[in-house]
Design a protein that fits this description.
- By secondary structure, the protein is mainly α.
- Helices cover 67% and strands 0% of the residues.
């Protein structure tokens, strides 16, 4: 954390590529190590949250620095977006909406979890309960530790969080330590993301829903995993990183459309279920009977549709080409591509099939 250091785009790209391919190599060749790695990752997430909360809550008192006032934490509102405050608040919910990615990851591993109809909903509930309380306490701690929001906004660090930690901890060394506690579990979580992305792509290829599906549906007999699907995931992510070097705006458009694309995938499952009278899905452990199920499904679809429209608005006003929100363009373009591809593949699409996970091509240590 040198005052004169200025982060360049290629610095981020190099770090991005290194992390991506370390993750790919781990998933390719360390099947047996994946469960312990996930346990270690979970430990660092919990430990990092607890340590960060304690440091941000205690160190200002130790350093005899004033805490932020109750007014600035709970009541002060600064709107620099150019939108009315109510709309700015709704648009700002995009940050919290990224939490939808967590249960989405779990659902794609349902084939590899025992009793998924019961355990997957329990895991999703646990994630949201833990995430809500840990996130709430974390935000309270860091907000009381901030002494100057102007310095945070003017910070030259790539992560504004580094300046927040510096103010709360009272030193650059403390800030580096807290940033490391954020980085380590984030890096380990990339392994889980790679596992999920490659398994999803492999599953789609197995069902004939991707280009070159016969090639990508292969399970390698030596590594006992979908080697080609994993490699494709690494190459695809690398290409996205190259886009970042060329244009931050274009890269942000791809990343920013994540919430919209993910939640639209939920609508494509929930809305037909709702319109068909909720008759075509076999009830599971947590089935909502009667009117309650219709109400919950209806509110869910309405919420997603309304907020996806809001999330397509520019981030602030006035707007120019460099700061435009292109999420609607990405969403529309991908939707059009999928529609065309569906017409091409509808005659040969097989659909989900039951696969015996203990087949001879899989190893006991494979996920």
């Amino acid at each position: 954390m040198h005052d004169n250091f200025e982060t360049q785009q290629w610095h981020v790209f190099v770090a991005f590529i290194i992390i991506t391919w370390i993750t790919i190599l781990i998933v390719l060749y360390l099947n047996r190590a994946l469960p312990p790695i996930e346990i270690i990752s979970g430990f660092f997430v919990v430990a990092g949250v607890v340590i960060t909360i304690l440091v941000c809550a205690i160190m200002p008192h130790v350093n005899q620095q004033p805490y932020a006032t109750n007014y600035s934490v709970w009541r002060d509102w600064q709107n620099a977006t150019g939108y009315p405050s109510g709309f700015a608040f709704l648009a700002g919910m995009l940050n919290g909406a990224y939490a939808v990615g967590t249960p989405d990851l779990l659902t794609h591993l349902a084939e590899e979890v025992p009793h998924p109809s019961r355990n997957i909903p329990k895991a999703i509930l646990f994630q949201y309960v833990f995430g809500f309380f840990s996130g709430l306490f974390y935000l309270i701690a860091i907000l009381y530790g901030v002494s100057s929001f102007d310095d945070v906004l003017a910070s030259l660090y790539l992560f504004p969080l580094a300046e927040i930690y510096r103010q709360a901890a009272g030193s650059k060394a403390g800030s580096v330590g807290l940033v490391f506690l954020s980085f380590l579990p984030a890096f380990l979580s990339c392994i889980g993301c790679c596992v999920t992305a490659s398994r999803v792509f492999w599953t789609l290829a197995r069902d004939g829903a991707t280009p070159c599906s016969r090639f990508f549906s292969n399970v390698d007999r030596s590594t006992h995993n979908p080697f080609r699907a994993i490699m494709f995931s690494g190459v695809f992510v690398t290409v996205l990183g190259c886009i970042y070097v060329g244009s931050k705006t274009a890269f942000s458009a791809f990343v920013g459309s994540f919430v919209i694309l993910t939640t639209l995938s939920y609508v494509t499952a929930i809305l037909p279920h709702l319109l068909s009278g909720r008759k075509n899905v076999v009830p599971g452990w947590f089935w909502m009977k009667g009117l309650r199920g219709f109400v919950v499904n209806g509110i869910t679809c309405a919420y997603i549709i309304v907020f996806n429209v809001i999330f397509c608005f520019p981030f602030s006003l006035p707007v120019d080409a460099a700061h435009m929100n292109y999420a609607s363009l990405i969403t529309g373009g991908l939707s059009l591509f999928m529609l065309v591809f569906w017409f091409i593949r509808q005659s040969t699409y097989i659909g989900p099939r039951k696969v015996v996970l203990d087949a001879h091509v899989l190893a006991k240590d494979a996920l």
